[in-house]
Design goal:
Strand order of the largest sheet: 2-1-3
Helix content: 55-70%
Largest sheet: 3 strands, antiparallel
Order of helices and strands: HEEHHHHHHHEEEH
Length: 218
């Protein structure tokens, strides 16, 4: 009798001790994922590869130390832009908006011309937007897509009201995608349409044309 009771108590104690460990393991619903968007995983390896591309380009720059120091939030920036692109795709699909390869190439040519050539554009994009050369066209696509979304919504993005209209469309798309961010990177804010731990520049993106070239300043 007493032996069985001691055994039962031991099992109960072991269960209680193990509970926090089991909870901790289960708190990461998607191990290996930086985020899950609309049921699709964004792997940590994908974000790490983007970061590595930028770091590689920075190391080849004559001011690599300065660039690395200024891009301390690079991982979060890349995760934000990757998730934001999925949200924008959803909002654009809902509004019947698409971007053609020709539009991206035209924007690239115009941006390069503004920057004094393709090399000048790559340098400016790396320094100001933390973009490796192979990431530039995706960034241009995002800018064009945002502007076309605003046009489809009849929103004047130069006005607060117009920006609110675009934000609402993105917020609706964000909520529909049920975004789950790995806790180590923060959380996704549906209302601001950005990663909670990273100040997104997307409002600036929608209020300027790709043909204007990179902004001056950090």
């Amino acid at each position: 009798m007493h032996r069985r009771r001691r055994t039962a108590l031991a099992v109960t104690a072991a269960t209680l001790l193990a509970a926090p460990l089991l909870s901790a393991c289960g708190s990461e619903a998607h191990p290996g994922a930086a985020a899950v968007v609309g049921g699709d995983r964004i792997e940590m390896s994908t974000i790490q590869a983007q970061v590595a591309d930028v770091r590689g380009a920075q190391e080849e720059s004559g001011q690599s130390g300065k660039l690395v120091k200024e891009s301390g939030q690079l991982t979060r920036a890349k995760l934000h832009s990757t998730v934001f692109a999925r949200v924008l795709d959803r909002a654009s699909e809902d509004a019947g908006v698409s971007v053609s390869r020709k539009e991206i190439q035209q924007a690239r040519s115009a941006t390069a011309a503004q920057a004094g050539g393709d090399e000048g554009m790559r340098t400016a994009m790396l320094e100001q937007f933390w973009l490796a050369p192979d990431q530039i066209e995706q960034d241009l696509r995002t800018r064009i897509q945002l502007q076309k979304l605003a046009l489809a919504l009849g929103a004047d993005v130069q006005s607060p009201e117009g920006q609110q209209t675009v934000t609402k469309a993105l917020t609706d798309a964000s909520k529909a995608l049920d975004i789950d961010i790995n806790p180590r990177y923060g959380a996704w804010d549906d209302q601001k349409v950005q990663l909670s731990t990273y100040a997104s520049p997307w409002i600036k993106q929608v209020t300027r044309s790709p043909q204007q070239g990179p902004e001056t300043g950090a």
